[in-house]
Structure formats: structure tokens, C-alpha cells
Amino acid sequence: MGRKLDPTRKEKRGPGRKARKQRGAEVELARFLPPGKAAKRRLGAGSGPAGRRPLGGGRGGGGGEREPAGQTAHGRSGFSDGNSKWLAPAKAKKTQPKGNHVELSSDGEVEEGSWEMEEEEDGSSEEMVDDYGASSSEEEELLPIEKAALKQKPDREGLSEDDSEEEDEEEEEAEEASKQKMGQKEEEGPDLQLNLDIDEQFKLPTSEEIEKEDILFISEPPDLHVIHQRIQGNMEVLQDFGVKREEGRSRQEYLALLRRDMAAYYSYSDFLLTKLMDIFPLPELIKFLEANEVPRPVTIRTNTLKTRRRDLAQALINRGVNLDPLGKWSKTGLVIYDSTVPIGATPEYLAGHYMLQGASSLLPVMALAPQENERILDMCCAPGGKTSYIAQLMKNTGMILANDSSAERLRSVVGNLHRLGVTNAVVSNCDGRQFPKVLGGFDRVLLDAPCSGTGVISKDPAVKTNKDEQDILRCAHLQKELILSAIDSVNAASETGGYIVYCTCSVMVEENEWVVDYALKKRNVRLVATGLDFGKEGFTRFKDRRFHPSLKSTRRFYPHTHNMDGFFIAKFKKFSNAIPQAQKAAPSTVPDTIISEPLPKKKKLEGSKADEEQKPPQPALKKKHSLQARKRPFKS
Amino acid sequence: SEKLLKLAASVPRESLVAPGTCFGKFTKSQKFRLSVTALDFLAPYAKHKVWVKPGSEQSFLYGNHVLKSGLGRITESTAQYQGVVVYSMADVPLGFGVAAKSTQECRKVDPLAIVVFHQADVGEYVRNEDTLT
């Protein structure tokens, strides 16, 4: 049977490019039919806003019978409602530019251009409900395929926006219009913000006024808003000091006031703030402080020993968790936006498919790059996140010695290792400084040293106030001892390894660059690239100190730049097992020219002397070194 | 593995916490009690399995026994009091149990009767972290 050309019959048109190209006979016909007739046809066709019309039946009167609305008043057109006054057919011309509209209704309705125009003009016929109960509002046109088309039709956008401005009740309109408007609004946003023009000069309060404030502070709490404004004003002055300064006031006074205000506003101790002001330039400092007020997003690491990231993501999404892959740099991380179930208690968690871990904790293990069948030492392993990551990268081969000096935290290590199915780990409870004595000759060592925690203030706000000079120096001292033990526990001659990774969750230079520099001076190690291509480089000089230039290969991560906890990572390669003796004249390294002996003997030798070496006082250390040097030639 | 044991031997005894994975413990009367940490190793070898419906997964993980209403599938010819491994519908092993009824009886019994006695489940990792060894 041939297909009869019946302009009164609407055809169902599918979505897609091809459907758009061939607009259908009705539209083509409209160009040739006289306008009145064309309108009548269209009216007849469109007044029953369903898709397909039943076949057969003539035009005109037949249409009226089909019409649920009722009898036809006009013999010709076939519909009868009283809309004829305002529902005027559009001119045939208008179908040309708006012919595109036909493409947009992809649920099968041929909403012809004329209808579009009429709807928009009226504004009140938006909610046309078709036979299927769905409304043919503009929302239907906005299917994802059509959105691309949308962007090419600015005039239509303008029109429909006008519409939605007229109607505010329709939720659908609002939603869909807001989608369109968002693009525009984003452009307007920055303009609005630029209106904040601070004309007034920032006036530095005199010392008397500051004292008055102190007195007031005792009686009533400080006005945070005022302080915040003052901080911002102060910052502006300091950034353009030559121009904006007040005569007769030194930079120091401005800085002092800024410090006081920031300490009050963000609740930091003055000491910590001074330290931070040395590390960060001022605008970054504000960002850092703000970032510390907000917690970092929850991240998890897929346990590849038991599952794949794809499968895990699917399973968690089915439970109602909103997540995303962490980034290009990680193949196992997922970041959790929100979830209806507690992440730490899903059956997948209990089955050991993933581990709750900060994003920054994935980095040192990636830098360490453990290979299969190696012997690895993790000196401060609790609660076991990094250890289990090492194990999964090694695919449960080789051996990991997971050590921590705190017995209670070790229980969580054991629990986690069992849960995640790690079989190649031995857990021990020694002090890290005992290490080469207990067991040495490892291929790689990971040292996640205990630190002051200034990088994880968002997790533990108490750090803001309870750290002082003593704490930092004590941490630094412990870290120096630990890093020497770590270096001594590595076998430089191992075929695949000889690497030490030192990391802390702190941003203080005393705990990071200083310790690394110390290690470079004291042992036969050199810094190598961490393999992480993002992150800020470590400092090679800081205030009055100068560090070795290879410190550029270390990496620093900050909460405000990378949205992960503050971190510092350094990777060493040990190139000789000998321990350099420090000369009495100057503390420069003079590596021994002794070739490394067969390892077990060597390790025992060094091991027995190791604990003596660790004793702090420097002159004593030097003596022991020279003693050792004298003894060795005999023993070899 | 043995290599692991030899390496672990060099750690002083007071300090050694866990060489490898713990399967279970010996009780005072010389009985061996299997713990949930052995699940990964035993699950693939299990001859008799019980699948639990999603609704009663959580209940099992809290330590409750499995009722007939929560039973999804069960391997044929499971004898009564047979040791079984409990799985979720997604084939994720959840723990160990003992079949309270044989497969035939399971079909006949009413929905609130216990069909699997709970012995060990993965939820213990969170509940009894300290006693896991």
C-alpha cells in the first residue's frame, strides 16, 4: 500500500539528525498551500495535541468527530473551543525560521512553528497536556540531544526566557529556564562582585586604640565582622604598600595588627601564625586559613586485591552513594560527595573492597612504587592505609614489615590488614629508631613520620593552638633520628630498590626541608624525582637557611591548592651502604671509599653500631664514627 | 607463608603482633575456633553456600541468625548442622554459619524459623576490632 500524503495526520518523528533533516510532508506542503488552508490544517492537526491521530476519517468534519473537545463550530477547521479569538494561526512565513522547532520536539509531536509562536505570545498555553498525560512544555524539548541545538538558537532562548519570566508558577519552566539562565548568570556574577569598590583608605588604629580593644575583649567578645573587614583592608594596604600606606607607620605595625586580627578571627596561636606567615605569601595565607576551616572531601581507595574500581563504584552507587573518580593521577581513588548510607559500614567496606583514606595518603605510596617480591618496611604504619596500598600494589607478594610504636593503634592495623585480605604483612611493635638492629636489608622503606600535624588542621583544629616552638623542635628531632634509621635499614645494593620515601602531613619547613637536608648531609643518599607531576616544589632556601638544590624534587601539597591535606613528600635513593664519617673540622660528608661488603655481615656491623649512632650529642657521634672507621679495615 | 614466618622470627617476641593472617584461635580445651579473618581463604572452597536476600544482609552483619524469610538460595543437599559460608546476592562472602535445617526442611518450614545459625560475620571487623587479634 502506498503511503498517502495526509497533511492532517501527524507523524511521529524520532530524535536524531536524520529526522531533523527531513521535516515531513506536512511542513513541505505548508509552503505550497495558501496560508489560510495551511493554518486550518495545522489548527486541525494541533488542537488534538496528541501524537498520532487515528487514520482514516476525512479532514474538516472528521477531525471534529475525533476531537474530544466536541462538535465543530466551523465546518472547515474541525475544532470547536472558544480559543479561536486568541488562537490565531501564524503566517506561513513564520514557519521558515521557526521550522527548526519541529526538530526540537522529539517525543513525536510535530509542534510546528506556528504553535510555538502562539504559545510564546500568549504565555498562558504553556501547559498543553496531551493525550498521554505528559505536558508538552518546553521541558520536553530540552532533551540532551537537543541541548546542543539550543545553544545555536539564541533567539529562541531569549524568547523562552521571557516566557518564563512571565510565568513563575510553573516549576518545569523555572527549572528549564534556570538551566538556560545559568550560563548567563555566571557571566553576570563577576561583574557584580567587581562593584565592591573600596575607596576609603585603610586606617591603621593607633596603639591606644588597640589597647582599648584588648580591654573590651575581656568584657565582651570581639566583633568578628569588624575584624574580618579590617583584615581585608590591611591586606590590601600591605600588597600595595608604597602607595597605600599611612605616613609614619611602619610595615611591622601593619603586620602586627594583621597577625592579631587573624589570630582572633581564625583562632590560631600567635606562634603558629607567625610561622605560617613566613611560609605563605599573604593572599595565599588567607586561602590556606580558609581552607583549614572546611573539611576535605571524603575519599576511598579501591582494594584491587578484591575488586575493581568500576565494580565498586557501581555497587556503591546502587546503595545510594554519590561518588566520582579521584583524578587522572589515581586509578584506585574515589571521592565521595554524599551518601545515604554510612561509608564506613557498607557490606562492601566490611568485605574489604575499599579503605577510607585521605587522598594525600595515596601519594607517598605512589612515589615509593613498590615492586613485586620486594621487602618493604613501613616504619609508622598505623592505621594501615598506606601499608595495605603497598600490599595491593605488590599483589600480596614479597613481604612488608608494618611497624608502629603504639600498641593500641596497631590493633586497627591488624584489623584493616585482615579485612582487606593482605597476606604478606608482618606487624610489629618496635620503636622506629631500633630499626636496622631489629631487621635490615630492605629494598624500600616508607617513613610517614609523626609530625606536628599542621597540614591536617581541618581534621584536628586543636593543632591551631596547642603547638609551640618546643613541639615543633621535638618533632623535628624525632624525625631526624627516624630518617637516619630508615636510611640505614635499606640495602643500597638491592637490584630493584634502594629507595626511601619520607613524608609528613605538615607544612612546616623545620619538619620537612630541614630534615631532608640533614639526611643528605649525614648519609650517602641523594634525592630523586618523586614521580608525582603535580604539587608545589619544596623550598631550596628559607629565611636564613640554604638547602641543597636537589630539594626541588621534593613536593609540597596544600589544602587550598589541591583540596587534599597538607603534605610533604621526598624520595631518596641510597647509593652506598657505607656510613660517612663526619670530619671534625666541618660537618660535610666524606663518603668512605670502602666497597660494600656482603650484606648480612655489613648489616650486623652497622646494626650493632646503629644504636650508638643514634645518640644525640654530636661530638660523641663523631668519635664513634672514627672509631668505626678504624675498626673496619681490620674486620674486612 | 614460610618465608614470611622466617622473617617474622627476627622480630623480638614482645614486639611481634601478627605474622601473616590469623585464621582462628585455640581454646583452652584444645578446640580450634575459626574466626572471620579466615573467610577469604575458605570461601572459594566452600561446598555448601547460603545466599541471603538484600534485606536481611544487614541483620546478619549485626550478628543475628538468618531466618527463612531472608533466605535467597541454598545449595542442594545441605545436611542439617552443616557448616556453610553465607554470601550476599552479589556473591560477596559475608561470613560463616551452621545450617539449622537441611535443604529439604528449609522448603517446608515457616518464614520466621531460623535456617542458619550465625557464627562469624564480616561486621565483626567493625564491632570487635580489638578482639580480632
From TrEMBL, chain A:
Gene3D superfamilies: Sun protein, domain 3, Vaccinia Virus protein VP39
Gene Ontology biological-process annotations: maturation of LSU-rRNA; rRNA base methylation
Domain SAM-dependent MTase RsmB/NOP-type: 288-575
Feature: compositional bias, Basic and acidic residues: 148-159, 176-187, 605-615
Keywords: Methyltransferase, Nucleus, Ribosome biogenesis, RNA-binding, S-adenosyl-L-methionine, Transferase
Cell compartment(s), UniProt: Nucleus, Nucleolus
Keyword Transmembrane helix belongs to the record: no
Signal peptide stretch: none
Binding-site positions, S-adenosyl-L-methionine: C380, C381, A382, P383, G384, G385, K386, D404, D431, D448
Compositionally biased residues, Basic residues: 10-22, 621-636
A Pfam family matched in the record: RsmF-B_ferredox
Molecular function GO labels: RNA binding; rRNA (cytosine-C5-)-methyltransferase activity
Primary location recorded for the protein, binned into one broad class: nucleus
Active site: C505 (nucleophile)
Region Disordered, annotated ranges: 1-196, 583-636
Biased composition (Acidic residues): 106-130, 160-175
Bias (Gly residues): 45-63
InterPro entries the UniProt entry points to: MeTrfase_RsmB-F_NOP2_cat, MeTrfase_RsmB-F_NOP2_dom, Nop2p, RCMT, RCMT_NOP2, RsmB-like_ferredoxin, RsmB/NOL1/NOP2-like_CS, SAM-dependent_MTases_sf
Recorded GO CC terms: nucleolus
PANTHER family: 28S RRNA (CYTOSINE(4447)-C(5))-METHYLTRANSFERASE-RELATED, NOP2 YEAST -RELATED NOL1/NOP2/FMU SUN DOMAIN-CONTAINING
Family in the record: Belongs to the class I-like SAM-binding methyltransferase superfamily. RsmB/NOP family.
UniProt name for this protein: NOP2 methyltransferase
Gene: Nop2_1
From TrEMBL, chain B:
InterPro entries according to UniProt: NIP7_N, PUA, PUA-like_sf, PUA_sf, UPF0113_PUA
One Pfam family matching this protein: UPF0113
Stretches assigned to the PUA domain: 48-123
A Gene Ontology molecular function term of the record: RNA binding
Function of the protein: Required for proper 34S pre-rRNA processing and 60S ribosome subunit assembly.
Protein name in the entry: 60S ribosome subunit biogenesis protein NIP7 homolog
Annotated source species: Polioptila caerulea
Gene name in the database record: Nip7
